[in-house]
């Protein structure tokens, strides 16, 4: 049947009907008073979600655009940066830095394992000359379903004095990221994840410490120069034409999130993470990554005895449910279940039931039929 596709991937995520209807409105002039009023409310609600009083800037672009802007606005050619990498996106930020002729030093961990905060501590304490100008961290590594210990790592960054530049693309909106409490400097995210709207907007939170670095940064930039965005944001507008209808969508989505409340929002994602992992274990499938560092946004599974891509294919063709595959070295080895944004308990139970039926079709004998749904239900009913 047409129009029944169910997204259970870590982005883009399902979009609420209310948000789709808001996005379908006729555009209005982006220099009009009406648009400025909407833009002001959106910015204020974004600060609420980010738990910050810092500048919160909106770009027409993806999460990668937001991260690139977050890197190039506060650094200069040849600056030494420390990049944490334990998945595809940590590696991507290293490539961005290299493209701008930054001196990149890596802290690495095996894919599926978290970054070790002590390695950051040692590297930063050894830098007595304060040559490291920024530390770039992926909070929730979308490619592996691992969340890194950002608050602990950031304590070492603050003690050193470097800037923290953080990818929160799949963590913002799925778990608490209290920017001001943790003292984060540059925080980037994208619209198609926890924000419950389609791709096309990037968000960057910028601290006063980062703006001080901006004054001397010399990396080339024009469209991504955040200075003009800051000046225009003070007047509730943007330096370039914004994605007007996506702003409408964001206005509606943030209204829904405020209605749900921060604590309830984060608790829902915690519950979905726990239910997903309990179900996968009950189905006899190995999880990729330990419970202790499991992302609230996405769960990675490394099946044995059945092929990951066959699971994804049957789920898509037979049940119209999209699961994400592995990336780079994990391609064909894992599949990923997204459970962030506009995903409910009902959605998860539906996906788990379909996954159990798929495993039965593929001859998987590692679990009792129905055990996955039962395990998920037990968590959801607590």
Automatic annotation (TrEMBL):
<dbReference type="GO" id="GO:0004760">
    <property type="term" value="F:L-serine-pyruvate transaminase activity"/>
</dbReference>
<feature type="binding site">
    <location>
        <position position="336"/>
    </location>
    <ligand>
        <name>substrate</name>
    </ligand>
</feature>
<keyword id="KW-0808">Transferase</keyword>
<dbReference type="InterPro" id="IPR000192">
    <property type="entry name" value="Aminotrans_V_dom"/>
</dbReference>
<keyword id="KW-0032">Aminotransferase</keyword>
<protein>
    <submittedName>
        <fullName>Alanine--glyoxylate aminotransferase family protein</fullName>
    </submittedName>
</protein>
<dbReference type="GO" id="GO:0019265">
    <property type="term" value="P:glycine biosynthetic process, by transamination of glyoxylate"/>
</dbReference>
<dbReference type="GO" id="GO:0008453">
    <property type="term" value="F:alanine-glyoxylate transaminase activity"/>
</dbReference>
<dbReference type="InterPro" id="IPR020578">
    <property type="entry name" value="Aminotrans_V_PyrdxlP_BS"/>
</dbReference>
<dbReference type="InterPro" id="IPR024169">
    <property type="entry name" value="SP_NH2Trfase/AEP_transaminase"/>
</dbReference>
<comment type="similarity">
    <text>Belongs to the class-V pyridoxal-phosphate-dependent aminotransferase family.</text>
</comment>
<dbReference type="InterPro" id="IPR015424">
    <property type="entry name" value="PyrdxlP-dep_Trfase"/>
</dbReference>
<dbReference type="Pfam" id="PF00266">
    <property type="entry name" value="Aminotran_5"/>
</dbReference>
<feature type="domain" description="Aminotransferase class V">
    <location>
        <begin position="9"/>
        <end position="330"/>
    </location>
</feature>
<dbReference type="InterPro" id="IPR015422">
    <property type="entry name" value="PyrdxlP-dep_Trfase_small"/>
</dbReference>
<feature type="modified residue" description="N6-(pyridoxal phosphate)lysine">
    <location>
        <position position="193"/>
    </location>
</feature>
<keyword id="KW-0663">Pyridoxal phosphate</keyword>
<dbReference type="InterPro" id="IPR015421">
    <property type="entry name" value="PyrdxlP-dep_Trfase_major"/>
</dbReference>
């Amino acid at each position: 049947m047409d129009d029944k596709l169910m997204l259970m991937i870590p982005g883009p995520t399902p979009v609420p009907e209310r948000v789709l209807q808001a996005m379908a409105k006729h555009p209005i002039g982006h220099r009009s008073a009406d648009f400025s009023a909407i833009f002001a409310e959106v910015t204020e609600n974004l600060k609420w979600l980010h738990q910050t009083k810092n500048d919160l800037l909106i770009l027409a672009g993806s999460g990668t655009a937001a991260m690139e802007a977050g890197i190039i606005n506060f650094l200069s050619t040849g600056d030494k940066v420390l990049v944490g990498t334990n998945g595809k996106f940590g590696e991507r930020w290293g490539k961005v830095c290299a493209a701008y002729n930054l001196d990149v030093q890596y802290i690495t961990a095996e894919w599926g394992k978290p970054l070790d905060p002590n390695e950051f501590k040692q590297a930063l304490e050894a830098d007595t000359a304060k040559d490291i100008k920024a530390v770039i961290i992926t909070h929730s590594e979308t490619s592996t379903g691992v969340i890194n210990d950002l608050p602990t790592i950031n304590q070492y960054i603050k003690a050193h004095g470097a800037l923290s530049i953080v990818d929160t693309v799949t963590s913002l909106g799925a778990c608490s990221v209290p920017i001001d409490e943790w003292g984060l400097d540059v925080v980037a995210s994208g619209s198609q994840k926890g924000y419950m709207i389609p791709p096309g907007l990037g968000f960057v939170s910028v601290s006063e410490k980062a703006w001080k670095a901006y004054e001397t940064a010399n990396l080339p930039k024009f469209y991504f120069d955040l200075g003009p965005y800051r000046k225009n944001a003070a007047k509730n507008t943007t330096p370039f034409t914004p994605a007007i209808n996506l702003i409408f969508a964001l206005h509606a989505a943030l209204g829904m999130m405020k209605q749900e409340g921060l604590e309830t929002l984060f608790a829902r994602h915690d519950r979905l993470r726990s239910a997903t992992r309990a179900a996968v274990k009950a189905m006899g499938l190995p999880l990729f990554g330990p419970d202790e560092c499991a992302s609230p946004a996405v769960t990675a599974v490394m099946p044995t005895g059945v092929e990951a891509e066959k699971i994804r294919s049957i789920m898509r063709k037979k049940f119209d449910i999209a699961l994400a595959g592995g990336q780079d070295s994990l391609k064909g080895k894992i599949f990923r279940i997204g459970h962030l944004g506009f995903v409910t308990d009902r959605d998860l139970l539906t996906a788990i039931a379909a996954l159990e039926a798929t495993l039965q079709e593929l001859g998987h004998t590692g679990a009792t039929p129905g055990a996955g749904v039962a395990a998920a239900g037990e968590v959801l009913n607590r």
